[in-house]
Amino acid sequence: MTEKERMLSGKLYVAQDEELKRDNLRARRLTRLFNGTTEEELECRTELLKNLFQSTGEHIFIEPPFRCDYGCHIRIGDNFYANYDCIIIDVCDVTIGDHVFFGPRVGVYTAGHPIDAEVRNANLEYGKPISIGNSVWIGADTVINPGVTIGNNVVIGSGSVVTKDIPDNVIAAGNPCRVLRAITLEDKEYWEEKRREYGKLA
Which residue numbers are catalytic? Predict the structure, then answer.
């Protein structure tokens, strides 16, 4: 089993492997080019992201700067938006659904390190995949930790540290992040009314 295969399967691995170095160098080059683009180069930005990631939907927009380790382990659905300073550490798979929005400085971190100092000092590390469902809003400065699954139709409050799975159709926030309440029919009715008011004023 190669170090990359060990990494993607969640086993202990050493990152200083030639294959992983090549993948990381490719990601660094593509993110450097992406972060160097101007606001007039939107097509170029999209093309670079589609080359960087394993797969994407048709519409994807990330505000520079953006950072990731490999990119090729990230799958993103349609209508994705990430605000400034997004970081995705993708030593394991990161799967993001459709209609997902990130506030500024959201961090998605699949990487973990052994608690035992001797093992950690031997440059061994591991990862756990992260999955984010459809129609999810993640507030600014949120940290998503290794192994977490976030369900569909979820709102994560700003400044949260997500350490455990979050179910569908809830608002969650805090450190550690916890469910505050369900998203209800009353929420839908309230925001539909706001949208109708907007339509009358537009």
Answer: 113
Angle between helices 42-52 and 18-35 (to 10 degrees): 170
Q: 160-183, pLDDT tens digit by residue?
A: 999 999 999 999 999 999 999 999
Q: How many domains does the chain have?
A: 1
The half-sphere exposure of 160 on its side-chain side, counting CA atoms within 13 A, is: 25
β-strands 136-138, 143-144 pairing: unpaired
Q: Where are the beta strands (DSSP E) in 69-129?
A: 74-76, 80-82, 86-89, 94-96, 100-102, 107-109, 111-112, 124-127
**Is this prediction's pTM over 0.85?**
yes
The CATH number of whichever domain residue 125 belongs to comes to 2.160.10.10
The conformational region for residue 43 under phi > 0 = left, psi -120 to 50 = alpha, else beta, is: alpha
Q: What is the Cα–Cα distance from 94 to 73, expressed in whole angstroms?
A: 6
Write out the residue range of the structural domain in which residue 156 sits.
3-201
Give yes or no for a contact between 143 and 132, defined as CB atoms under 8 angstroms apart: no
pLDDT at 201 (0 to 100): 67
CA distance 59 to 80: 7
How far apart (Å, rounded) are the C-alpha atoms in residues 198 and 76? 30
CB burial of residue 27 (10 Å; 0-12, 13-18, 19+): buried
The pLDDT of residue 200: 80
